[in-house]
Every structure is written in C-alpha cells, then in structure tokens.
Amino acid sequence: MNMHRKTYRDNMITTLVLVLGLLMPTLTPTARAQGNPNPNNIQYGTLSAKWLQRPLSIPSSSGQVLPAGGKPKSYSLADAAAATAYFNTGPRTPDTLPGGFPFQTLYVTNELSNTFTVKEDTMLYVPVVYSDDTDSALWPYPDVTSPEAVSAYYFDPAQLGIEFAKIVVDGKVTVLGPQYAVGAVTPGLPSGGNNYTVVGAFLSPLSSGSHTVKISVRASGAFFAMHPDFFPGGVVEVEITYTVLVH
C-alpha cells in the first residue's frame, strides 16, 4: 500500500484517539486482543437497533451526557463536528478553537495539563474518537453524509469495530452507541483531508467545584487486523482524563 505523508502509526492515532496529540510517542495502545473480539456474535444491525431504542429525554443533572438526537444551543452533533473538525485535525491550540462555538471542547492540551476552567452555566463538548479521510490510505472511509455509513464505520466489527466508547463524569459511566457517530464535509482540513467523522457527545453544565471527565475507547475491528505489524492483536485501547474546574 502506498503511503502519503502520514505513517501507519499516525493514522492509527488520528483514527482512534480523540482530540489529542496522541501523535506523541509516549501514548500507545494499552491492551491486546483476548480471544474473539465479538464473543456473542452480535450482528451490527442488532447492536445499532438496541442503542437507538434508548430514550431521548434530556437529563437535568450536573454533567449528564445528552441524547444524541438533541440540539442544545441549536447545535446537533453533526453541526459540532463541522465546527470543530479544523481544530481537532490541526495543532489544537487555544487560538485555533472555533469562534462562536458555545461549548467548552475538551481536548489534550499541549502542556498535557488537560485542565479547563469554566463558568457554572458552560456546556461541554466531548469528542471521544475522530477520523478524517486521510485514513483512506489504510482502509475504506465512509460517506460522511450517510449517518448509517458513519455509524457502521465506527461500530461494525467488520470495520473499526468499537467495543465501547465511554464518557465517565465523576465516576458515572455513559456508554456511547452508534447514534453518537456523525460526519461532516470539511474541505481543506489541516491534515489534508476533506471529510471528517467523530464519536462524541454534549454534556450538561457541571456544578460548581472540581470535576473529572474521563474518556475511554476500545476497538478491535477487522480494519486493524489488516495491519498486524502496527496493531498487534488487532486491538487499540486508549483512556484520557480531564479536570474541569467550575466557578
């Protein structure tokens, strides 16, 4: 396979580690496959249907993961993807944050403090996994205008095969399903791509004080098995923790 300016490892990180500079060599996958990555042989369509049956009522408690179909502050998750794609695929410095975006985006900072200070009424946007179409050098990339194709790209075991994508707020775990995967057409990304996809969610405002927001993802789809030299065992797993100070 001919490679463009990215290495396989760079593509792995772009594909499976959110908003961070996991372009840093010290952060690597932390787990390996243990037997069948889909032991119950659950079909993707069945899995997707189960997630889509979850209720869409808006939680009111502090730091709750909002339903995928909501539009807080008139933003859908697809709108948030389009607004933040250039930031996430670029240097991710504060001066490149999207202007007018009414959420605090959580991302790995250059100084690795991963600490954010916000006001009490601030909603959060938390990308967990993102990818752009430069990853087509490794495997097929989905039609970003098709929600079904984007969901399948991330959660179908025949593709990236996410086993879980979690947001944990002060110990409370929310597992994101296929409906949290969205895409956007984004010409001229800093990475060289023109299309972008992400699994992420909005959080309701946190109460005053110090809070911990942790994200974690594990994937073991067939796409990783295509490149065993770079994905030993066919599994990628990453966990990142943020501190949010609310005043």
Q: Short summary of the structure?
A:
This protein is α+β, with helices and mostly antiparallel strands.
Provide the succession of SSEs: HHHEEEHEEEEEHE
Decide which structural class fits the backbone: alpha+beta
Strand tally: 9
Q: Describe the biggest sheet?
A: 5 strands, mixed
**Average pLDDT number:** 82
Please give the order of strands in the largest beta sheet. 2-9-8-4-5
Oligomer status: single chain
Estimate percent helicity.
10-25%
Shape: globular
Distance between the termini: 51 Å
What does the radius of gyration come to?
A: 17 Å
Unreliable sequence segments = 1-60
Strand proportion: 25-35%
Instruction: Figure out the total of helices.
Output: 5
